[in-house]
Structures are given as structure tokens and as C-alpha cells.
């Protein structure tokens, strides 16, 4: 899904549980391209709507690109595996926790070591240090 978007130079910028759909064959689809843009090698600095899946570079307006979609996928996968958002603080998400990639795995949940390692490599503050889509494959 992301590889196809990236190959067309599209950054979705709003990947979250609410924008993921299953079709009648249970194929995962991505919808709601209202925040998407064409990426032409310039880092975007526009502030987008803030959600549990927003990347630190969007919050800080330090420039974002394809890596922001990968961050969102990591946050979605964390949510699906644990049943809770990674940066939740009380009833909402914490911008400070997102900015610092401050998350932990629930102690009462047995989660495969490989998933933990993958998520630790995706949910990294510095987008240049995040695992790439190619490495993730």
C-alpha cells in the first residue's frame, strides 16, 4: 500500500484506523486522501490535523515526507497489536509523548519480540533514522 503510494510520489499524511478499510475479499484499502500531496523532494511544513498517529515532524513543522506515513503505520500497528494508542495520556494523546517517541509496551501483554523491534525502529523521532519501507519488507 505505502510502496505503491510512494512509487507515485504520493504522501497520504492521514493514515489512521479510520482511513483503513477492508473490501469484500478482506483486502486492506486506504481511503480519505483529503490531506495527501505529491512529494517533489521538498519537505512539507504544513500543520495537519493532529491525531494519535501524527508524526513528530508534522507536530514540530520541521518538514515531512514519506516517513510520516510510515510513522502512522507504526502507530496503527501498535494500536492493533496492543488495543491501545502508543502515545495516549489519559483520555487523549500527548503531543509531548509523540515528540519524544515516548511509548512502552503493556506489561500484561505478551507481544512477539520481532513486533516490538519493528515498532521500535518505526516509531523513531528522527525520520532519517526510521527504518525504510525497503528495510521493513
Topology diagram in text:
Layout: H1 2-7, E1 10-11, E2 20-22, E3 28-30, E4 37-38, H2 56-59, H3 66-82, E5 88-89, E6 92-93, H4 95-99, H5 113-122, H6 133-136
Antiparallel strand pairs: 1-4, 2-3, 5-6
- How many distinct folded domains? 1
Q: Hey, roughly how much beta strand do the residues contain? A: 5-15%
Query: Which strand order do you get reading across the main beta sheet?
Result: 1-4
Q: CATH superfamily membership, which one?
A: Transferase(Phosphotransferase) domain 1
N-to-C CA distance? 12 Å
Following the backbone from N to C, one meets helices and strands in this order, namely: HEEEEHHEEHHH
Based on helices, strands and strand pairing, what is the structural class?
A: alpha+beta
Mean pLDDT: 87
Give the helix level as a range of percent: 25-40%
Number of DSSP strand runs: 6
Poorly predicted runs are none
CATH topology: Transferase(Phosphotransferase), domain 1
Shape: globular
Overall radius of gyration? 14 Å
For the record, the CATH class is: Mainly Alpha
